[in-house]
Design goal:
Blueprint: H1 7-27, H2 30-35, H3 39-46, H4 50-81
Length: 85
């Protein structure tokens, strides 16, 4: 007798593989890497005074903190809800 393939399990594996491939492609996408080295931004930052550079670094930290906190909150909420239905 032949075993009948479980379509639900197969679909789950394909879905996970596609998500992983999309994440890998987004991580190593050349367009995203080039966006981090904008020539205009680099020239204006290199020609700026030390106070401007310090303010720019502070602005990056201010924008980074809420993003990280939101990500942590979503992760914690998802982890706590994983067993409930």
């Amino acid at each position: 007798m032949r075993k009948v393939a479980n379509r639900v399990n197969h679909g789950w594996i394909v879905c996970r593989a596609l998500r992983g491939l999309a994440l890998l492609a987004a991580t190593f996408c050349p367009a995203a890497l080039l966006a981090q080295a904008c020539p205009l931004c680099y020239q204006s930052a290199s020609a700026a005074s030390s106070k401007f550079i310090e303010a720019l670094r502070g602005g990056i930290v201010v924008l980074l903190i809420p993003t990280v906190l939101i990500g942590v909150c979503v992760t914690v909420a998802t982890y706590r809800k994983r067993g409930e239905e």
